Amino acid sequence: MIYLDNAATTLRKPPQVEAAVLEALRSCANPGRGGHAAAARAEEKVYGTRRLAARLFGLEPEQICFTANATEGLNIALRTLVKPGTRVVISGLEHNAVTRTLAGLGVEPVVAAAPLFDAAAWTEAFAEALRPGAAACVCLQVSNVFGAVLPVAELGALCAARGVPLVVDASQSAGLLPVRPADWGAAFVAMPGHKGLLGPQGTGLLLCLEQPAPLRFGGTGSRSEDRRMPEELPDRLEAGTLNVPGIAGLGAGLRWLLARDPSALRRNETALLRRAARGLEGLGARVWTGPGQTGVLSFRLPGRDCETAASAYAARGIALRAGLHCAPLAHRTGGTLPEGTLRLSVSPLTRESEIEGFLSVSEALIRKK
Q: Domain limits at 329?
């Protein structure tokens, strides 16, 4: 199988990730719940991964909180900052993890929208939408539909000038682009562990530069005499037993990334996307591409609806995703409703030969119609 659905999850991991998961399954008990060797090993694995994440993102280990996925992190961030009826500004590319959470909080957000791949226009749109006193501004760094990169640093400066907390969704950027929440002035940054960070599913990180409100309540292995959740991070957000095997695997993924040149990884992914875009355009496909694009490419084949085309690709051993990609707001912005798009997404482990194989299948499908 040629796997090109990495925006959903990186199926292919460095071998160290699987090895770390298996080792933790066999040797780690419950961190913070005992003084024996197996519990101590679990504590070492968890704290070691926390330190690696802190190194990658320029924070202190205590500011790194483990979650089950980016969605949980975004729920924590938004439920901390947002109350019903408050003003929240979001980009016109946000995922349902943001829009549905706001709907659940009784908030109709103000949408800042601009043309895809136009960073200056996005900055201007947010400048017009942001007002002092807003409860939050929410912005993804990279669109999971189009691969467009938003100017997060500029948005952070706008938010700081207006006293508005910034929440960043780094689901498609962590591990690929620099994620520096302190430089952005962000309150929270959420990300999954199982995409660009190359860890297992069931892992995620919430980077906390402000005090969060707990989403879950329960045991933390600390301050057991207190009926309230601890004030200290990370315990405040980590009630219950942690996913130690997943966290150990995430640590292995972080080590793999930290041992490599991030700019070289990005150049390689950009080159793969450009090759795919040029090849598809040469075959007559509709392609959404532009300056700064990274990680993700949306397209449509002539004469085929997206779902049928995705099934045809799958039958030929090509894994893509079709439809709205849990982000109908982004498709409204991109003008691709109601059908959505086919989405190709690469990872650091995607090979050039796989892009060539994908293009060969694409040519066959277009000729067959």
A: 261-368
Q: In this structure, what CATH number is given to the domain that contains residue 311?
A: 3.90.1150.10
d(CA 78, CA 98): 8
Say how many domains are in the chain: 2
Q: What CATH number does the domain containing 218 carry?
A: 3.40.640.10
Closest CA to 135 of 84, 99, 87, 90: 87
Question: pLDDT digit string (tens) for 53-74?
Answer: 999 999 999 999 999 999 999 9
Given 224, 258, 292, which residue is the final one in a domain? 258
Query: What are the counts of helices (DSSP H) followed by strands (DSSP E) for the chain?
Result: 12, 13
Cis peptide, bond prior to residue 338, ω within 30 of zero: yes
Domain boundary among 225, 243, 258: 258
Amino acid sitting at position 369? K
Locate tokens 């060539």: which residue? 356
Q: Which amino acid appears at position 201 of this protein?
A: Q
Spell out the long-range contacts of 117-121 with Cβ–Cβ below 8 A and sequence spacing 24 or more: 117/146, 117/148, 117/289, 117/290, 117/291, 117/292, 117/293, 118/290, 119/149, 119/150, 119/151, 119/154, 119/292, 120/151
Residues 238 and 279 in one domain: no
Tens digits of pLDDT across the chain (369 residues):
999 999 999 999 999 999 999 999 999 999 988 789 999 999 999 999 999 999 999 999 999 999 999 999 999 999 999 999 999 999 999 999 999 999 999 999 999 999 999 999 999 999 999 999 999 999 999 999 999 999 999 999 999 999 999 999 999 999 999 999 999 999 999 999 999 999 999 999 999 999 999 999 998 877 777 888 889 999 999 999 999 999 999 999 999 999 999 999 999 999 999 999 999 999 999 999 999 999 999 999 999 999 999 999 999 999 999 999 999 999 999 999 999 999 999 999 999 999 999 999 999 999 876
Q: What is the largest CA-CA distance in the chain?
A: 70
Residue 7 lies in a domain: no
